[in-house]
Specification:
Blueprint (H helix, E strand, L loop, with lengths): L3 E5 L2 E7 L5 H5 L9 E5 L5 H4 L2 H10 L6 E5 L1 H13 L8 E5 L6 E3 L3 E7 L7 E7 L4 E3 L1 H6 L6 H7 L4 E3 L2 E3 L1 H4 E3 L5 E5 L17 E5 L4 H7 L8 H10 L4 E5 L12 H10 L3 E4 L14
Parallel strand pairs: 2-3, 3-4, 4-5, 13-14, 14-15, 15-16
Antiparallel strand pairs: 1-2, 6-7, 7-8, 8-13, 9-12, 10-11
């Protein structure tokens, strides 16, 4: 059952990628509030990625959410949500702003992040989401300000907040005198995908890739390479080739469940990837380190 939360130090709002059954129940074991979900991205229409969404939206409303919520999802799922809520007489206390992922062009700019959809390869249309941090606090280029004869004053604070100001008749642009405190962090969270190469144009400078590894390579060859899913070897090799520093694998076949059953997947991934490698389990929490500019 897939659901991945993304939160930010600079905002109380958070983002959710996929919402399978049990998502809102699992949230009870976290510090995340359903009332603060601002963005929901669904990768594809299979139930193990989206059947928890009608109940989640209802719970968000019951928890007092009144601010608009952005939903990025396949058009069929948007229709399913409207029908589910309508047929059960659910009246949301917030505006649900829907974007069909199939027609999402470029990045969607939100208050605390930017979201870009990446088309993947699965049995049904499936997408990954590249999420880039926004709102990184600014620092002043003090040496440049002094070199340009701009004395300290209230305009320093305005520039640091991203505001352009006028100083002694001269227009000062915030972008010219400030820089980000750290490089905006960027991650990709994928839906089901049998072809990691579909990501190759979007992985430059990402900090973390979350990708399914349903099979070992040998098992995938045994069941057939066009299952719509990937294997640990293939995605590990891809992450190593593209110098991705953190890789989180998830969505394991039930054949690997139980004590020590993941060892074959772990051994295969570790053989082909030298970065920070994680195997998803319920309530796993990862922190993306800040890199200075």
């Amino acid at each position: 059952m897939s659901a991945t939360a993304v939160s930010f130090e600079t905002s109380k709002q958070w983002l959710l990628v996929d919402c399978a059954e049990g998502t809102q129940h699992q949230l009870l074991s976290t510090s995340l509030s359903p009332a603060k979900v601002a963005v929901i991205c669904i990768t594809h229409i299979h139930g193990d990625h989206c059947y928890g969404l009608p109940g989640m939206l209802s719970s968000m409303s019951l928890h007092g959410r009144t601010q608009p919520v952005t939903l990025i999802a396949p058009q069929k799922l948007i229709q399913f949500i409207h029908l589910s809520l309508g047929l059960t007489d659910v009246k949301l206390g917030f505006d649900l702003q829907c974007h069909a992922v199939e027609s999402l062009a470029g990045e969607l700019e939100l208050s605390f992040c930017r979201v870009k959809a990446i088309e993947l390869k699965h049995r049904v249309p499936s997408f990954g989401y590249q999420i880039t941090e926004c709102g990184v606090p600014k620092k002043l280029e003090i040496a440049k300000l002094e070199a340009d004869g701009i004395a300290s004053g209230p305009h320093y604070n305005a520039l640091q907040k991203g505001q352009d100001v006028t100083y002694e008749g001269k227009k000062l642009r915030s972008t010219e005198y400030t820089f980000d405190s750290w490089r905006p962090r960027k991650i990709i969270i994928c839906g089901d995908n049998e072809k990691p190469a579909k990501l190759q144009n979007d992985v430059d400078d990402i900090d973390l890739l979350v990708h399914e590894a349903t099979f070992t390579h040998a098992d995938l060859l045994r069941v057939g390479t066009h299952t719509g899913h990937s294997d640990a070897k293939r995605i590990a090799e891809f992450a190593q080739k593209h110098h991705i520093p953190m890789l989180a694998l998830t969505h394991f076949s039930v054949r690997y469940h139980g004590p020590s059953m993941l060892e074959a997947l772990k051994s295969e991934a570790n053989e082909h990837y030298q970065g920070l490698l994680y195997f998803a389990e319920d309530l796993l929490s990862l922190s993306i380190p800040k890199q200075r500019n």
